Amino acid sequence: MDYKVERYLKSDINNAKITVEEILDSIKNIVSENTFFNTKLILNELIINSILHGNQKDKSKQVFINLLIDKSCIIIEVADEGLGICYKKKAYGDYDFCESGRGLMLVEGLSDKFEVCGNRVKCVQYIK
Known about the structure:
The chain has three helices and five strands. The chain has helices at residues 13-27, 33-54, 102-110, and strands spanning 3-10, 62-69, 73-79, 113-117, 120-126. The protein starts with a strand and ends with a strand.
């Protein structure tokens, strides 16, 4: 079983919510409940980060979403039109008083593989 979703969306939180709901609706019968919940959190965090931080809420810029499910894993890739970031993993307590960064920490914790490359984030969740 291979399933693929590719979407472009404008940097608008309302559009993002609708797009995430559509993607999740299309995969809810393909993955387990636990995997579904983690995928929902990952998609929400990455898309919101792309809109707010990457594209600076500029509605003329887009967010690209690529989701692939095969028999062994789910690969989620989200990219924006921003300048990108240099992500460095911190210890959990280092985020206590930060205004940002906790979303990526959460995504990294939910992913079996996690990679940030400029304005693109790629996550892999192994299907158990």
